[in-house]
Amino acid sequence: MPDSGKEITIYDIAEKLKVSAATVSRALKDHPRVNKNTKKKIIKAAEEMGYRSNSFASNLRRKNSNIIGVIVPRLNSSFMSDVIAGIEKVVNDNNYNLIISQSLETMKKEISNARAMLNNRVDGLLVSLAYDTTSIEHFEPFIKRNIPVLFFDRIFEHEQYPQIYIDNFKAAYEVTKHLLEQGCKRIVHITGNQLRNVYAERLRGYKKALEEHQIDFDGQLVIINDLSAKEAAVAAETILQMDPLPDGIFTVNDVSAVSCIQVLKKAGIKIPEQIAVAGFNNDPAACVIEPNLTTVNYKGYEMGEVAANMLINHLANRQDLQQTHSLILRSELIIRESSRRK
Amino acid sequence: MPDSGKEITIYDIAEKLKVSAATVSRALKDHPRVNKNTKKKIIKAAEEMGYRSNSFASNLRRKNSNIIGVIVPRLNSSFMSDVIAGIEKVVNDNNYNLIISQSLETMKKEISNARAMLNNRVDGLLVSLAYDTTSIEHFEPFIKRNIPVLFFDRIFEHEQYPQIYIDNFKAAYEVTKHLLEQGCKRIVHITGNQLRNVYAERLRGYKKALEEHQIDFDGQLVIINDLSAKEAAVAAETILQMDPLPDGIFTVNDVSAVSCIQVLKKAGIKIPEQIAVAGFNNDPAACVIEPNLTTVNYKGYEMGEVAANMLINHLANRQDLQQTHSLILRSELIIRESSRRK
DNA sequence: AAAATTTATGCAATCGATTGCATAAATTTA
DNA sequence: TAAATTTATGCAATCGATTGCATAAATTTT
After folding, report:
1. Does B28 contact strand C, using a CB cutoff of 7 Å?
2. What three-state secondary structure class fits B278?
3. Using an 8 Å Cβ cutoff, are A333 and A296 in contact?
């Protein structure tokens, strides 16, 4: 039974076994230069005495932490919690630890989170940017110290920072093209802050599809908001006031799409007959709303796994981050009833 | 511009300013026994030189980590990601850091997570138990070391561990009572592993309500599964085979309820007329499914905040954990169309 | 049997911040 | 002006694990 009074250290084990602390240290990490029997004895004693390695002492000496930091806008979105789950899985399987913080969509908090991560001497950082982040200076101290910073999903184009994302341009292009092919002529696009690649790229894709179908881009049809359910409901009311009514809506997330559909249905609009709707993300709710929502499937869990693997492989020197600077994951358009007009 | 070669320490600052490291250390944490001007100079120099405190050294010396550990079954459920978001908020506002890991619903992983948390010398631990955890021995090392462990939601009754949860018995009782009042006589109950308080208590509440309405408990009507959408669909098929058909379903999570409703509707069952349905959690999908789902609202974000606050207050000696051993949060029945028969 | 090599262990410095105790300097009180 | 007090700073030990270098012991080679 371990003594509850005081934490056991390698010195305690050393003393008990009449060996040096150095030998204990080596034995516990299976260093080849320790006699098999000694090793066995030490491991047994450590077990019996309830020894737990002090990672602070170890990290201090070794100058690395085995900690991966994660900064995301919010933890409680369907997509992000999938990403985090994927990251956690990989990180944990590789004997790293995970420190997580959320920027709550503000650059200010993101900066303070980054400082904390630096103090905690993370070995690497995974970041998805806040809604209003305009610069990434706050990650420079990491680069200076040679700590890899990897952006995912909400990225920032920059030589120094590898990135993982999907082809938002293409995905949005395909969504819009699909809507056009269903006969839509006036498609409202609900999107977020154009600072963020994901939203800017999707707008580009939307425009490109219109262009190919010889439809003039109409700025009036683009609504920019914070992508919450609440704002989407407001947007839907705006849409109801439009004259003529649009015949399609492409929102950049499913939360907005669902919220819109609910308002429009309540107003007596037939979906997809009068207005076809498509979202983005394939949230669970996409298969619950009636009609089921056409959307872009985009596996968060997988993105988390890939991002974490890439970082850890790099840390283990198994992979050069600069070499695989950008990684583009697959996404797919899923057509459901909310946009299908035959 | 900070030198990129080497990490700046208090010794570097001390040398540059011709003071001792002790003074630098004190100045940086605003110790009263340092001259104002000296302080100012030191803080300025630290800033200029790009000094970042090494938390390992500091933690090693101070013997605490400012880290809160969290172990949950899964990160990617609507409820749990809300809880985590709440925890992160409070933890971050109090200058603690958050280490998170998921047990993936197995006791084995939970044990290994607990070991890692111990090595990381967390100051306190927040835990929601895995599906199949039968013993909590693996948390004893924390108690021995006087590290508080607090259970939330999926708790384990034990003197040493304070806990935060909702009154599952009462909530389930009210749900069932409500269904009975809508005229239901044969209510199927879909629930999870009875090892877990949340599910056992809800079954108790279900039984209690039946009893009060002089309806005999029928074991055939209780379905135990893993509460996934998939298993719920299977359960719904089973229900469709029942003869006579039940006239009510009470599932212990909304994911199951939604999945059931979808299957039942497809089979032509009218909800709530033929079968009234109620869930638990008030997931976002509850307001998306048609008919909208009657459920128990149960604020995850708040539970996370409360749990983290309780732990941190205790760590700051502002509160004795033993004193507030159990904290029961409020939950409320939300009646929607899926069960309303007038 | 001596020399060379291999194996096993220990010594002691190091990582960087903290803090009890001592002391010097400045200020107040008698 | 001397004594007492307050303020400011430094010394040096400490937290626990790691690791380069040295050395002793065992084994192999000549």
Report:
1. yes
2. strand
3. yes
Please tell me chain B's helix, strand, coil percentages from 3-state DSSP, rounded to the nearest 5: 45, 15, 40
Name the residues in B191-220 having a C-beta closer than 7 Å to nucleic acid strand C.
none
* Residue at token pair 């900064």: A71
Are residues B100 and A100, on separate chains, in Cβ contact within 8 Å?
A: yes
Query: Per the CB < 8 Å rule, is A85 touching B98?
Result: no
B311 touches strand D (CB under 7 A): no
pLDDT for res A54? 95
What is the residue-wise DSSP string for A74-125?
A: -S-SHHHHHHHHHHHHHHHHTT-EEEEEE-TT-HHHHHHHHHHHHHTT-SEE
**Integer Cα distance of B148 and B143 in angstroms:** 6
How far apart CA A113 and CA A215 sit, in angstroms, is 44
Helices (H), A133-196: 140-144, 168-181
Q: Are A49 and A13 in contact (CB under 8 A)?
A: yes
Model confidence pLDDT, tens digit, residues B153-168? 999 999 899 999 999 9
Whole-angstrom distance, CA of residue A92 vs CA of residue A127: 18
CA distance B221 to B295: 19
Distance between CA A237 and CA A226 in Å, rounded?
16
The domains of chain B, with CATH numbers, are 10-53 (1.10.260.40), 66-166+300-330 (3.40.50.2300), 168-298 (3.40.50.2300)
Give me the residue from B76, B84, B99 closest to A82, CB to CB.
B76
Q: Which residues of A touch B285 (CB under 8 A)?
A: 284-285, 288
Strand B187-191 relative to strand B163-166: parallel, antiparallel, unpaired?
Answer: unpaired
Residues B172, B330 contacting (CB under 8 angstroms): no
Nearest to A102 among B85, B104, B301 (CB): B85
Chain B CB contacts of A303 below 8 Å: none
Nucleotides of chain C touched by protein CB (<7 A): 7-12, 14-20
Max alpha carbon distance in chain B (Å)?
A: 89
Sequence-distant (≥ 6) Cβ neighbours of residue A319 within 8 angstroms: A310, A313
Question: Which of A75, A109, A147, A230 to probe by mutation at the B interface, max B CB count within 10 Å?
Answer: A75
pLDDT digits (tens, 9 = 90+) for A267-322: 999 999 999 999 999 999 999 999 999 999 989 999 999 999 999 999 887 667 66
Q: Which of A56, A96, A292 to substitute to test the interface with B, most B CBs within 10 Å? A: A56
The two three-digit tokens of residue B108, written as one number = 């084995």
